[in-house]
Specification:
Chain lengths: ~625, ~100
């Protein structure tokens, strides 16, 4: 509540209750019957203690008045001092009559005022600011004097609350602490002050700190990027081009890999618009990769296929506005397409998908589709498998309408080399087994994510059928036993794997946190067998949340003398047995390691991390990385 | 012949429009392309004379490239390297040059 409202509403203020009191005669009676406006609890309290808010207000007003008078007086003297000093001629004239002694006295007084100002904090602040602004040409003494005088000058200005004429427009206005000084030292009105401030904002360029702060380092660390030395010139230029993408009219004959990188950066920054898309449309190119098509419209997609007739590879992600007519246009015009990758193309109907597969038939080598929830059902998959007999690579992730029938159809694709599946619908283990039985022998990649019913039998089939796998994923499964994993990797004819992901294979039962007697998921035995089988070639390994791997197993796998020369990325998140010692052993045994992910490994506290290695997820993420040894390329 | 080339401490990089930049050999070898040109065992004329004529690059671009070479050498094995200042109007040309020079 402000001072004013306190006074107005206060029932104790004399001028308020004197009226009705005299009119009614009985003071007490009026008090009881009177309708009172809202009043603060404070006023009530003060009144009950016989303190008048009005009195307080008046006291305050008096103090303000006194302060104003005092300031005005000070200002006058300051003005005098200032004018004496500034205008030497006037000074001579004005003080012509005074004795040399008086003159001396005043000069001394003036000098002390200046000295006082020079010692003040405000003066020091301004001085340092000024020094930054201009290179000090003048001698320090002179400069100091000037600044001090300036400050005296400022003191003589009208104080807030007074009226003044604007220096620029001449309007009369109330001076506030925010009033700006005009070019000639006078004050400016609100509007002119604002203009001046706006101008100042425009002229000072926005400061852009170097992108190498602690936050940036941590952000890069989470991406597994530990940078030593300078970025490559190409990378640096690519970033610069991406920054200035609005000024780029065309890329010229930029080679395809650089275009690809630019597309990635632009997509990440979400600036891939219809305008920037044009920069990527070059008729001689055979591929287009746009990772974020969210801002492109139907016609833009059509333009891609119109401008680039010789496309063989199409990769469009987040292509929400890609419709039937675009795909139909593509089938009419682009006859050489071999490789199709679409993400989130939910406006394309099943009928259109079937026409696409019929049209391209056996020429399609790779189909990767993800996040299709509206169309693309089992029948379409059957159609695809019927027509696209030459398919070597198939990836279906998060397609909501595919299920067992799709699995059955995929089992007929004899030419498959790479198969990645992540279904939303629950599927049966029999169909999955059929796939491995029928196409397993050629597979180099087998990625089964979220197949909850895959069991030991499936692992057994993989053991007996797959002999050319390089990449193997079986994640998010709570059925396969440790025993089966151990059997899979023991005496397997498959050459050593390079990429293994067995994350989240464990029993999840809250009522039995230690898991059943027979261990579920990749546990000690299976892990040892895996590393025995693939340790010599393995590059990336993800065993996050395989919670039954014991400390002994880790100690054995990463014991003295064991070497995993190619392992660059390892994820051991949610392994409670992981501690500083084991992490140290890992660094020792994996000379090539670049990225070690260890989220929720609470015993990892104080590890010495070799230079050039990203340890992600450790508890004290904000600490600077402990770097050990020199970085070697 | 190649023994003399090996002893040369400085090499000369020549732009398409005739500007010459004399830089330490190690600095120039930041670029993979130039490193292979100057490889003493290759017997390229560049390796023998210690002089690389880069026809496709203009003087302005080559100057910036040389600046990058020095910047790269200076920040070798250091963390938190500040970005080099690249004028926006030059960055596309420089990008082509970087691609060619394999840096």
């Amino acid at each position: 509540m402000t001072e004013d409202s306190l006074v107005d509403k206060s029932p104790t203020s004399p001028h308020y209750h004197s009226g009705p009191a005299s009119h009614n005669g009985s003071k007490i009676c009026t008090r009881r019957n009177r309708i009172r406006g809202p009043q603060s609890a404070l006023t009530d309290f003060l009144a009950s203690n016989n303190i008048s808010a009005h009195q307080i207000h008046q006291d305050y007003q008096r103090r303000v008045r006194e302060a104003e008078q005092r300031e005005a007086a000070e200002q006058e003297t300051a003005e005098q001092e200032y004018s004496q000093h500034e205008h030497d001629d006037d000074y001579q004239e004005a003080h012509a009559g005074e004795s040399p002694e008086q003159k001396k006295k005043r000069k001394r007084k003036e000098a002390t005022t200046l000295a006082k100002i020079k010692q003040s904090k405000e003066f020091a602040r301004r001085k340092s600011q000024r020094l930054m602004d201009v290179a000090g040409d003048d001698s320090d003494e002179e400069h100091d004097d000037m600044l001090a005088k300036e400050m005296i000058d400022e003191k003589s200005r009208p104080i807030p609350g007074q009226l003044e004429n604007c220096e620029k427009c001449g309007k009369r206005f109330t001076v506030t602490p925010y009033s700006k000084t005009g070019p000639n030292g006078g004050l400016l009105c609100v509007k002119c002050s604002k203009d001046v401030a706006d101008d100042a904002k425009k002229t000072t360029p926005r400061k852009r700190g170097p992108r190498s702060g602690r936050r940036q380092v941590q952000s890069n660390l989470l991406d597994g990027i530990i940078q030593y030395g300078a970025m490559s010139l190409a990378e640096m230029c690519t970033k610069k081009v991406a920054e200035n993408i609005d000024d780029v009219e065309e890329f010229g004959d930029l080679p395809s890999p650089l275009l690809h990188r630019l597309s990635q950066i632009l997509s990440k920054r979400r600036v891939l618009t219809p305008r920037t898309l044009n920069l990527f449309l070059r008729p001689e190119l055979h591929s287009i990769d746009i990772y974020d098509c969210a801002k492109l419209e139907t016609d833009d997609f059509q333009k891609i296929f119109a401008y680039m007739p010789s496309l063989t590879q199409v990769n469009l992600r987040y292509a929400g506005q890609l419709k039937d007519r675009v795909l139909e246009y593509m089938t009419d015009r682009n006859s050489q397409i071999k490789d199709l990758q679409f993400d989130a193309v939910n406006l394309v109907t099943d009928a259109c998908w079937r026409r696409v597969f019929q049209k391209y038939g056996s020429q399609l080598e790779s189909v990767k589709l993800s996040n299709l929830d509206y169309s693309f059902d089992d029948e379409t998959v059957e159609d695809m498998c019927k027509h696209c007999t030459g398919l070597r690579r198939l990836k279906l992730t998060q397609c909501w309408k595919t299920g067992d029938r799709s699995l059955k159809a995929i089992a007929g694709l004899k030419s498959l080399e790479h198969l990645s599946l992540n279904f939303v619908e629950e599927t049966s283990k029999e169909e999955l087994g059929d796939i491995i039985l029928n196409v397993g022998s050629n597979l180099q990649t087998l990625s089964l994510d979220g197949f909850h019913h895959a069991d030991d039998h499936v692992l057994g089939l993989i053991h007996s059928k797959c002999h050319s796998l390089v990449k193997f994923r079986l994640s998010d499964n709570a059925v396969c036993t440790d025993q089966a994993y151990a059997q899979l990797f023991t005496g397997w004819q498959n050459p050593p794997l390079e990429y293994v992901d067995l994350s989240s294979t464990r029993d999840v039962d809250n009522s039995n946190p230690d898991g059943p007697e027979e261990l579920i998921g990749l546990a000690s035995q299976g892990f040892v067998a895996l590393m025995d089988h693939s340790g010599s070639k393995i590059q990336k390994l993800n065993i996050a949340s395989c919670r039954h791997v014991s400390r002994e197993a880790f100690e054995e796998i990463f014991s003295e003398g064991k070497k995993y020369p190619h392992l660059t990325e390892l994820d051991v998140s949610f392994h409670m047995v992981m501690d500083d010692f084991l992490i140290g052993r890992i660094f020792r045994c994996c000379p090539a390691i670049k990225k070690l992910v260890a989220f929720a490994c609470f015993n990892v506290r104080d590890v010495r991390v070799p230079a050039g290695v990203a340890l992600i997820g450790s508890l004290r993420a904000q600490d600077p990385i402990v770097v050990e040894g020199r970085f070697q390329k | 012949m190649s023994s003399t080339a090996q002893t040369q401490e400085y090499v000369t990089l020549v732009s398409g429009d005739g500007f010459e930049f004399v830089v330490p050999r190690s600095t120039a070898c930041v670029s993979g392309t130039i490193r292979r040109m100057l490889d003493p065992s290759s017997n390229f004329s560049e390796a023998i004379t210690g002089r690389c004529v880069l026809e496709t690059l203009s003087g302005v671009v080559l100057e910036k490239v040389c600046e990058y070479f020095c910047y790269n050498q200076k920040n070798k094995e250091q963390a938190n390297v500040p970005d080099m200042d690249i004028p926006p109007e030059l960055c596309l040309e420089l990008l082509m040059a970087a691609d060619y020079l394999d840096t």
